[in-house]
Amino acid sequence: MLVIRVISGLALLTLGRRLFWLFVGLIGFAVGIALAGQVFPSQSDLTQIIIALVLGILGALLAVTLQRIAMAAAGFLGSGYLAFMLFENLNIIQSDLVLFGLVLLGALIGASLIGKLFDTGLILLSSLIGAMLIIQSFEFPPTITLFGFVIISLIGILIQLNSNTKPNSHH
To answer: pTM of the entire structure?
Structure first.
């Protein structure tokens, strides 16, 4: 599972802007991994990966056929996932209701960001989520996790901003 998370994170970190369908597919995969682990904790890693792959493939198909809906869904799910993982890793929110509210707020902000600023939103979200997938694959103390997340995110943003290839979208 570690290798899959790191490879998915690297792909999002560096290719999220250029390959929108990959971004949506990997968001589906990342959310699928998180959900499968929570909903089916007794299932094998292989079963959880298959569930995540199915969600990822559905996300990629959605991105190709219904781009506007896929953009909003990816922004919503990606930002919600990012907010949940950040607050979960920082362990500063004790109330499930407050956590849910913050995750929902993050999800709405992400959907709005992708809708209004497609390229910028895609670069930011794919870099942040890619960094989160990479950093959460390893067990570091919270301070190092946060520092690593910020550094890896910035590297992804810089890589994508300096990419000469235009996004593969019909926005």
So the answer is: 0.62
- What DSSP string runs through the chain? -HHHHHHHHHHHHHHTTT-HHHHHHHHHHHHHHHHHHHH-TTS-HHHHHHHHHHHHHHHHHHHHH-HHHHHHHHHHHHHHHHHHHHHHHHT----HHHHHHHHHHHHHHHHHHHHHSHHHHHHHHHHHHHHHHHHTTS---HHHHHHHHHHHHHHHHHHHHT--SPPS---
| pLDDT tens for each residue of the chain, 171 residues long | 678 778 888 888 888 777 777 777 777 777 777 777 777 778 788 888 888 888 778 777 776 677 777 777 778 888 888 888 888 777 777 788 888 888 888 888 878 877 777 778 788 888 988 898 899 888 888 888 889 999 999 999 999 988 865 554 444
